[in-house]
């Protein structure tokens, strides 16, 4: 039986965070692989290591610092997850998404999810941003859904509508800011896989045919839980590599490449996120 944290676990984690700061975040940002620098811009910051928060899953991979940073960004009270955990690290999908439940209990209404992703769409280049318009949750479709198990109606509905998962108003804001700032931002469908293997060329061609524009190993389950809790979600992928669709290609996918692209992606992502937050 997979580990299923309870409402009491969510409450205990939220209580520990409330003890560390009186700040009441309305907006939360999850920073993906190689994108953690934005947390350094948070002012009057209180940083709490994930290990110091009861029940929080702990990041085990390079590029994910594993801290919750609470403070102000653009004058707004925010909580920034500097790093996240993934299903492939061995946690249950309920553990992976526990921080989203906890952020909701802290009062967060708007969730900004970022990730590093491989570009499936042939027009995407490394360093581009992709605004997530919709997703294909392959992990969830395969049965690994964070809403599996008994439903607590106090947290959200048993059967969740996913037709408007990524908030239209937030999307429009993000696109407009990217346009004004001259930042290349596509719109597209994010495919969420379990990882940790990168995709085979045949899988890449399959995901592209299926309607995916970018592929990664996070985000979709977090979106499900955020929507279950009634949060507005903005999702932005940083295209860190172009997916390899040919078995005879000389290139290979690597985590180093993903982290290196972060240098270009981080300032772009930061500009868009700051712009959106300043308008909320
Ligand atoms: N595939 C899956 N996940 C990823 C990739 C990729 O190419 N790049 C960054 N995360």
Written overview of the protein:
- With 280 residues, the chain is of the alpha/beta class.
- The chain has a single domain (7-279), classed as Rossmann fold (3-Layer(aba) Sandwich).
- The chain has helices at residues 7-20, 93-96, 98-105, 138-141, 168-181, 201-209, 220-228, 255-278; strands at 27-31, 43-49, 67-73, 76-82, 110-119, 129-137, 185-192, 214-216, 232-242.
- Strands 5-8-7-6-9 form a 5-stranded mixed barrel.
- The longest helix has 24 residues, at 255-278.
- The N and C termini lie far apart (41 Å).
- Hypoxanthine binds at residues 116-118, 198-199, 215-217, 240-241, 243, 253, 258.
Q: What fraction, in percent, of the residue positions are helical?
A: 25-40%
CATH topology, by name, is Rossmann fold
CATH architecture group name: 3-Layer(aba) Sandwich
What's the shape? globular
Low-confidence stretches: none
- Small molecules bound in the structure, each named once: hypoxanthine
**What is the CATH class designation?**
Alpha Beta
Structural class: alpha/beta
Count of all domains: 1
Distance linking N and C termini: 41 Å
Q: Supply the CATH superfamily name.
A: Nucleoside phosphorylase domain
Mean pLDDT: 94
Rg for CA atoms: 18 Å
Name the beta content range. 15-25%
Biggest sheet: strand arrangement: 5-8-7-6-9
